[in-house]
Amino acid sequence: MYGEVESRQPVVLQPPDTNAAWSSNNSSLVDFSIEGSNARSRFREFFRNFRLDNVFIYRDALIRNWNRRDYFVEVELSHLNQFDEILFNNLQVPFNHCIT
User: How far is 96 from 94, CA to CA, in rounded Å?
Assistant: First the structure.
């Protein structure tokens, strides 16, 4: 099992239909596309600045896990959507993580 490589196709979460995504004054469309370097900086900002009740939950979780040598953090996707809707709509999630 450890020597085998599974081939998985990612499931891409699609942004809303841009034809229906008008700004508040209906004069221009909302752009939901971002590039890789911009996505990295947006994720960095999310991990550094997202907080609930003045607690930086992801920044603290990253520090806590780093000290335990666990190099990951679980993210509640609704938090990401609340912080940055464009980043959330550009997120790619591997198919096997969508199935319980």
Answer: 6
Please give the radius of gyration of the chain, using alpha carbons only, rounded to the nearest integer: 17
Expressed as residue numbers, the domain containing 35 is: 10-97
Q: Compute the distance between CA of residue 24 and CA of residue 49 in angstroms, rounded to an integer.
A: 26
Helix-helix angle 36-49:57-67, to 10 degrees? 90
Average pLDDT, the chain: 74
Tell me the pTM: 0.58
Q: Is residue 61 part of a domain?
A: yes
Total domains, the chain: 1
CA–CA separation, 60 vs 50, rounded Å?
11
Residue 1 lies in a domain: no
- Distance from C-alpha of 82 to C-alpha of 76, rounded to nearest angstrom: 10
Structure tokens at 8: 């998985």
The single-letter code of the amino acid at 84 is D
